[in-house]
Amino acid sequence: MDHQAIAQLLGNYGEFVGAIAVVITLGYLAVQIRQNSESLSANAYQEMTKAANEWGNLFIDRPAVATLFRRGIDDYFSLDPDERIQFNQIVSTLFRNFAVALDLTDRGLVPRGSTPADMYEQSLLSMFTRPGLRDWWKSQPKSGAKFESHVDMLLKKATFSTN
After folding, report:
1. Is residue 63 part of a domain?
2. What's the domain count of the chain?
3. How far apart (Å, rounded) are the C-alpha atoms in residues 29 and 116?
4. Taking a C-beta distance cutoff of 8 angstroms, is the pair 62, 69 a contact?
5. CA distances (Å), origin 74, targets 69, 101, 128
6. What pTM does this model have?
7. What is the CA radius of gyration of the chain?
8. Residue 16 domain-assigned (yes or no)
9. pLDDT given for residue 161 in this prediction
10. Cys-Cys crosslink for 116: which of 22, 31, 48, 87, Cβ 3.0 to 4.6 Å?
């Protein structure tokens, strides 16, 4: 065998080994990406759950907040200006948490099913049966975002179920 044939044979072997190395590398990267996605999903779920728990703890730790919230969801317009500011902060936090949960679910970082987004949705459906929360939502400025459309759908659903 001459030098050129040997060089050609070694070149072919090199290409073959290189192709196998590329396939192994791609397989490794696919596994790493899947594991990273699972980790992101777990972290997102954990953070949403933490935010929901912190919101719920407002009422456990401070009974006056629970009283204000109950009064606000029953009759938002009966609250004095300072109480409305407090109520707005309480409810805005709930809605921000829900918006984040929906966004993470829509982006596939948290699977659909028994997620914090579903829990927020069920809570809001229940709360929207109360006139004060409906009044609060209607009084808020809207930008037409996807989240706002989703909440409007919940409001209609809850209002329909109370009639």
Report:
1. yes
2. 1
3. 30
4. no
5. 8, 26, 10
6. 0.70
7. 27
8. no
9. 54
10. 48
